[in-house]
Every structure is written in C-alpha cells, then in structure tokens.
# Entry
Amino acid sequence: MPSENQSVSSKMFRRIINVQQWGIIIVLILLVIILGVSSPVFLSARNIRNILQQVSTLGILSMGMTVLMISGGIDLSVGSSISVVAVIVGKLLKAGVPVGYPIIIGLLIGCVIGLINGLLASKTRAHPFILTLGTMTLFQGVAIIITEGYPITDLGDKFEWIGGATVGKIPFIVILFFVVMFFCFFVLKYTRLGRKAYAIGGNEYTTYLAGIKVRLYKVVFYVFCGFLTGLASLVLSSRISSAIPTMGTGFELQSIGAVVIGGTPLTGGRGSVWGTLTGVLLLGIIANGLNLLHVEASWQYVVTGAVIIFAVILHEHRAQ
Amino acid sequence: MNEQTILRIHGVSKSFSGVRVLSDVEFDLKPGEVHAIVGENGAGKSTLIKILSGAYEREGGEIIVGGKSYELLTPRIAQDAGIVTIYQERNLVPHLSVGENILIGNEPKGAFGTMKWKELYSRAGEILKNLNLKLDPQATVHSLGSAEQQAVEIAKALYKNAKIVIMDEPTASLTRAEIDNLFDLIEELKKEKVGVIYISHRLDEIFRIADRVTVLRDGFKVLEREIKAINKDVLVKAMVGEELTITHVEKVGITDELFEAQGVGREGAFWDIDIQLRQGEIIGISGMVGSGRTEVVRALAGIDRIDRGRILLKGHEIQGKALDEIIRLGICFVPEDRDAIGLISAMSVAGNTTLASLPKISRGPLLRLASERELSETFVKTLNIQAKNIHQEVRFLSGGNRQKVMVAKWLCKGIEVFIMDEPTQGVDVGAREEIHRIMKHLTDEGKAILMVSSDLDELMNMSHRIAVMRGGHIVKILATPETTREEVLSFAIGKSISQQ
# Structure
C-alpha cells in the first residue's frame, strides 16, 4: 500500500527522476562543488552559458538516441551522419541556394539516413550495432567523397545566425535543445508512440503478440533519431560556420555514453530524457572544468572514459 | 542388495515458490540395471533428475552414490561422482571431431601442451569399438545425425567413467532403427556395469528395456516394481491415480459457434486439426510433451503459419492475416512462458494491462493516463491482482499474479476467444483456483476458451470437452464428465492400453 501522507510533489519528483539516477546526480553535484571551489570562473553566468552552448549539439543528438535506445535500437552512424548532412548543406549554401532550403533538405537527409538504418534494422535479423557500424563507415566515406576531403568554410551570415543568436541572454541553440528535450519527454510519457518505444524495448516479441506493428515502429524510431541527428548537424555546422567531412566523428560514442550514463540500458525498455540530460551535462562539465583547470585534452578522454565505466557499474549494481 | 546399489535416494523433497513438486522420494539403482521412471507431465520426473545431476538443490533427504553420502550436489560434483545426464538437447561441441568430443577435458597432451592427435583418435576409436559403434573418430560432430550424436554422448559418458547414466526421453527424435541401435548401446552399458535411469512416456519402450520401474505422481513415489511383475494397465492406473471428486463446469450457456478450425495442418508439425468452439465453452487439449499441442494452439491463434485448412473466427477466415488484424477480430494467445513472451517484465501492471488496447486509452496519438489508471485499477480489483499499486513492475509479482496480468491484458481488449497454454503452470494453489474462477467467469459471459494443459485434474474439471493429441494429430475428442482420466491418458500415450 502506498502511504497516503506522501506529498504530491515528492511523488511527482520521484516519478520524474528514477531512483537509480541519484548516484549520477550526486556525482554531478560533487563535481560542480569541486570545480566551483577550484576555479573562480566555473560558476559564472558566462561559463554556465558556455557549457550549455557546448552541450547543445550533443544534447539534441542524445535525445533522439534516448528514444531509439529505449525502443531497443542503437545507431552508431549518427556521427558520420552529422558529417554527411553538414557537407551537403554546406555545398548547397556555397552554391547560393537560399538558406531555408538547405535547412529543410538537411533535416530530410537526416530522416532518410534514419530510414535506411531503420529498414536495415527491422528487415534483417542482424544486430543494429553491427548494421549501423557498417552504415557509419559508409556515410563517412560519402561525406569525404562529396567534399573530396576538403572542409567547406564560411557558410554565410544567415546560416550562422542559428548558432549565434540569443533570446534575451540565452543562446537560441540552448533553447532549441530544451525544446527538443521537453518534446521527447512528452512523446515518451504521453503518447502511444512513446509507450510503444518502451514496450518494444522491453520485449519485442510480447509487443508483437499484443498486435502492435513492431517492424513499422522500429523504423519510425530510427527516422526520429535521424531527424534529430540532422538538426544537431545544422546546429554544429552553423556554430563553427563550416562543414568538415569528419566533424561528427566521436559523437556517436559520446551520445551513446550520455544515454547509458543516464540509465538507459543497451537492452532498452527503460530510461528517460532526464537521465540523458544528466549524462550530457556530466560529459559537458567534465570537458569544461578540465579545460578551466588547464588539464591536457588527452586526460579528458581518460576521465570521461572512467566516468562512463563508473556509471555503468553503478546502474548494474542498483539494478540487482 | 545393499552392497549392490550404486545409487540410493532417500526421502528427497523439493518445492518451487511454496509448491511441493517432490515429496519424500525413494529411489535406488543397481549396477548394470535399467531403472525407468514414469509419470504424467509434472509428476516430478525432471525435477528428480535435475536434483541428481546437480542442477537443483534438494530439500532434505539423502543421496548416496557408490556408498558415499553427498551433502551437496553441484553439476561438477555429480560428474565427478560418475553421474552423467544425456539431455534431449545435445551437449557436444559441434565443430570439433567425434574424438575430441569424447575426450574433451582429458585430451592427451605432449610437451608444451600440444595435442597428441594420433593417441586421441586411437583412444576414441577404442571406446567406439567397445560400444560396437561404427563411427569415424575424425568426423566432425555437426555432420552427424541426431542419433549418432546421442551415441557420441554415451561414448563420452563411458570415457568419463560414468557409473550412472541418466537418459531423459532419449528416443523422442529417433527413428525405429535408431531406437534399436540405442537399445543395443544400453545393453553394452549394462555389460560395463553402468546403471541407467531411463525416463520416457513411451510405455512400450519401458517394457522392452527396463528391469525395474518407478512411478511418480504429483511428486510422490506411488509404485516400484520389477518390470516382469507388472502390466501396462497397472502402470497407467498408478500414473493417473484415483479418481477425484469432480467439481465440474456446468454446461449451461453454450450456444453459438465462435471459432472453428477445419483441416488445419502444417508440414512436419501437425495435420488435419478440426475443432469447433462455441460461446461459453472450454475445450481442453491434452497430450504428452512433443505431441504438438503448443504448436497447434499457436497456429490457431494466428501466430505461426499453417499450410492447409481454414480457421474461422465468427465466420471470418483468419488464416494468413496479419496478427494485429486477427487480434482485432477477437482472438488472443496467453502463452505458457509468461516472462519470455507473455509479459514485458520491466513495465508496470498498468502498462502491461493496456498494451494491447492503447487506442482505448488514448485520444488521437495522445495517451490519457487518467483513463489508463482507472481501467487498470478496475482489472486489478476484479481479478484480485496482488500488487503494491498499478505502477509496480510486473517482474516483482508472483507467478499467479503475473498470469492474471496476462489475462487482464486481453480482457481489457475485449477478446472473445482465449487460447491459453498451461494457464496454471507454476502458480500456487490459491492463485490456481482464482484463475479457474476467472476462466469460468469468462465463459459465463459467453467467451470461449481453448486450453492446453498437462494437468489432468485441470482438464477434467475445467473443460467441457477434451481433445487428446498424439503425434501432431487430435486422436480423440472426449466429453466430460463422462470420460475418465485413464481414458484420456490412454489416448495420449497410445491406443494399446485401451484395447485390453
């Protein structure tokens, strides 16, 4: 029996944040305290804005990955998809196409890439990890072929607006990240589509036996992830005002890392966008903080890797 | 006789989640003897051999192997004590040779751990020759047939100095000639003074090969005889036990035909299945494991394909249609394996309850969580599901309650034909009664149930008619309560008994 005197707000809070998440939140808070004490600028408004701006690309990408991984899928090709979308958009902008078209086309290409991955994952019996490992390499090649290996720079003021604009004092891309996050939260919690993501990830066969078109929805989740990959690509290339054929490299592992730190298991069926938010923030704060403390970039890899291992062990431990 | 026994089991019991599946069982085995264990499905045969092979831990009692009492039996200790189990699924490494498989773990090694291939093959060849087996020790195991692989397993057992060989339904997938070979092999084992525990539901085989037979029923040992001192009739009587007082479902309310199978078949699995299921009726399907019961009901529920015949639901042909469409027409499958395919264990009671009826709790693409809560709370109450609340994940519920959640899923959908595979297997007595009550309630409302069960009591008490399956075919449809447990079992095992 649930105790009746439990306050409504604490119930709400518990429902939003999974108990397993507390370990990571404590780590996050500890990290903020340590960095706040050791670096005077860390907690300044400018630096906080800076962190949020830096994690927006990874954040948008990881929200799509969260939905996909809850449904039991995984997409290793998001990194090279970012590159492909960026170089095509860059080429179009350089050719003088009005800025609206490349943006729409970029998002569509993201969807098409998702469709390809989704069809492969749902029509074949091979594991999506391996399938998207294949498409990852394939798309990387495509991006290099399109640009012949050269970066495309100076994409124009209008396009750069996305990455540079602010609303009040808040960067537009940070707002975009939070809009995407709340949208994904809403989809997962309040729509049939979201419920199906949890169901398919929880037990694909049971879901099929319940009369749900599992194959169709698997494709839908890949397309959803692909769309947000396209969006993340636009955000990234407009921030740096260039399209580099290898610019997305490493993003796939970072976003899967953020999702896993956030408590979504590789097997799917569980997870939340709030967990992923903690994962994204943790990765962003580690990078930022170590920069502020003048720690060499190579050590950032070591620390990030250790955090991911720690998080996975923590989740394993709590799950038992 | 005492010095002569190589195995003595004394007062061994076992329960699963409060259900006694083995009670104070006594059993012994002499060298060079074949001692058969028979019983209905669920009588405790597999539990007993799993205890012997170290897979399950026993509760109380004593196990003495070769004069030594074993407090704890793990698979490792059991093997070292000379107990080898030959399972239906082969336990061989498919890509290694016959010789390597026989000597696995004891391969002759030279300096630096290199394999002495010549010696390996000659030793393996010797063992094969002793057993009169014409197998090439250099052949790869996966190129062999099922019977030959079984022979390799036996050779492997012998090489390991097995004193006791346990065979669980060894002839299930063998042809007649292969069975003869197996029996020759068992004769060789007897000459080597190995004791064989032989489990089979094919009574003919038991009368051919066994020296002694023990009958288990509901976890109790009910009979032990020399095979020469017993006939099939007595054996079957011992297996089914005394007739229980039957609280039978009333036959009121059976009206229109809801579901019909006409000549349904699938190559290599089952053939010519005819069933008519009317509103308010429960048909039980009886049959031994391997008779094709589950295959048939899965196909009738539209999950697996059929090659021929028609399946009619309220006059609509459903064969070949997509599963979601078939479900919409009003038929569902409640599987035996709750956790693997029946439920989403990481999902809440509410989520599982409404899984098949999402449109019912949503407006457009949006879920109405309030109406989901209301709906699932109703089912929790009417089915008396014991859960902390509707948000509790189903993996924390007991077997009986998980079973009820599966039923709730389909009640929520408004299903009319329920196809249930072993609806009460592994649930405790209280939950079992409740599930039976729910089933009766369903039929009162004009719904129909097709139920596979290994439990003769359940079949006799719950169903209006019992379809008995053997070898992929319905051999007889019997009406209850006129039929008897013996009659059902005799059709399930084979006609030979009923001829007497």
